[in-house]
Design brief:
about 350 residues; five-stranded mixed β-sheet
C-alpha cells in the first residue's frame, strides 16, 4: 500500500514499477537420474551419433532388456541395431567380436557377468589380444557390459565380482561406475574407444537415483577412462573403492565425521587403467589407506593397490599398514544372514578406519 501511495504521489506508472521488481531467485535444482536411465541415455545418444554402433544380447530388444536398461531402443532403432540373441554367450560374443574386427562398434550385453564366463575365451583371446598380435593393425572396438558382483539371494554361481578377473588381462580396459554420471560418461567413453572395454555395472544400483549436473546432461559429456574421482575431501584417512561400495564408504565417512574423523573417499571408476596418481596424492595427505571392494580378497583390486603403494613413493607417507575390506573368501551363500556377512558392510569400514588410526 505504501508503494502504491508513493507511486501515485510521484506520478510514476504503478504497474511498471511492480513489473521491474525482482523476486527472490534460487539456483535451479539438479536433475535426479537413475543409473538405469543414465545407461539407457548413453546408449541412445551413441546409437544416434554413430550408425556403426549396435546392441546385442539376450532379451535386449522386444523385452527392453532383463533389467530394462535398453528400454525403448528397439522401437527407435529396429531389429538391425538392437538384436535379440539365443542363450548362447560364447556364440553371440564371438559374433560381436567379429563385427568389431569388421569395422562396427558393438555393445555386447551379458544378462550377468557370471554368464560371461561362457564367453571368456572370446573376451580374452579374441578381443583383448588381437591388437597386440596384429602389431596394432587390427583394432577391436567393443564394449562388454552387464551387471557384476552380488545382487540379493542369487547364491554362489551368480554373485561374483569380475573386476580383478578382467583387470588382470592386458589388452582390456575395465570400468566400474558408481553414480549416474559415472554410468553415462564412462559408457559413452567406452563405446567411442577403439579398444575392447569390459563395463561392470551393478544390479543393486540400477534403480538408485543420483543428482546429475547440467554438464552431464549434454550429449557431448564423457568421463575420461583411467581417471578416479575424489567424492569427499578428508584429512585423516583415505578410503578407495569402486561401484556400489563407494556409497558404503561415503556413508561410513559421514558417521565417522561426527566423531571428528575426516575421511577422503576416492571412487576408482576405472580398474584398468588404474589411477594410482590420485590414490598416492591422497595418501601423501592423509597417511592412512583402506581399500573397499565386494570381490574376494586374494589377488583382488585392493591387493593390487597395496602392492603398488608398497612399490612406489607413497609408502614413505604411510603411518600404518594398508587395510583391505573385501568380500569373504568363500562362495556366496544363499541365506540372507550369511550373504550379509559375506560382503562388506558400513560397520566393517568404520572398524577398519579406527583400526588404521589406532582409535
Amino acid at each position: 500500500m505504501a508503494l502504491l501511495k508513493s507511486c501515485v504521489r510521484s506520478g510514476r506508472n504503478v504497474f511498471a514499477v511492480i513489473l521491474r521488481r525482482e523476486f527472490h531467485k534460487t539456483a535451479p535444482a539438479l536433475v535426479q537420474v537413475t543409473v538405469r536411465d543414465a545407461l539407457t541415455q548413453a546408449m541412445d545418444e551413441e546409437l544416434e551419433r554413430d550408425e556403426r554402433v549396435f546392441l546385442l544380447g539376450e532379451e535386449v530388444a522386444q523385452y527392453d532388456g532383463a533389467y530394462k536398461v535398453s528400454r525403448g531402443l528397439w522401437k527407435k532403432y529396429g531389429d538391425k541395431r538392437i538384436i535379440d540373441t539365443p542363450i548362447a554367450e560364447m556364440g553371440f560374443a564371438g559374433i560381436a567380436v567379429g563385427s568389431a574386427m569388421a569395422g562396427l562398434r558393438p555393445i555386447c550385453e551379458f544378462m550377468t557377468f557370471n554368464f560371461a564366463m561362457q564367453a571368456i575365451d572370446q573376451i580374452i583371446n579374441s578381443a583383448a589380444k588381437t591388437s597386440y598380435m596384429s602389431a596394432g593393425l587390427q583394432s577391436v572396438p567393443i564394449v562388454f557390459r552387464g551387471p557384476n558382483g552380488h545382487a540379493t539371494g542369487v547364491a554362489a554361481q551368480h554373485s561374483q565380482c569380475f573386476a580383478a578377473w578382467y583387470g588382470h588381462c592386458p589388452g582390456l580396459k575395465v570400468l566400474s561406475p558408481w553414480s549416474a554420471e559415472d554410468a553415462k560418461g564412462l559408457l559413452k567413453a567406452a563405446i567411442r574407444d577403439d579398444n575392447p572395454v569390459v563395463f561392470l555395472e551393478n544390479e543393486l544400483l540400477y534403480g538408485v537415483a543420483f543428482e546429475v549436473s547440467e554438464e552431464a546432461q549434454s550429449k557431448d559429456f564423457v568421463v575420461p577412462i583411467g581417471k578416479a574421482k575424489v567424492e569427499r575431501q578428508g584429512t585423516l584417512i583415505t578410503l578407495v573403492s569402486h561401484s556400489r561400495y563407494v556409497g558404503h564408504c561415503l556413508d561410513a565417512a559421514a558417521v565417522l565425521a561426527e566423531e571428528g574423523i575426516e575421511c577422503e573417499v576416492i571412487n576408482l571408476r576405472s580398474i584398468r587403467p588404474l589411477d594410482m596418481e590420485t590414490i598416492e596424492s591422497s595418501v601423501a595427505k592423509t597417511n592412512h589407506l583402506v581399500t573397499v571392494e565386494g570381490g574376494w580378497p586374494q589377488f583382488g583390486v585392493g591387493a593390487e593397490i597395496c602392492a603398488r603403494i608398497m612399490e612406489g613413493p607413497a609408502l614413505n607417507y604411510l603411518d600404518a599398514p594398508v587395510i583391505r575390506v573385501t568380500g569373504v573368501d568363500i562362495p556366496m551363500p544363499y541365506a540372507k544372514i550369511l550373504e550379509d556377512n559375506s560382503v562388506p558392510q558400513i560397520k566393517d569400514i568404520i572398524i577398519s578406519v579406527k583400526k588404521s588410526l589406532n582409535i
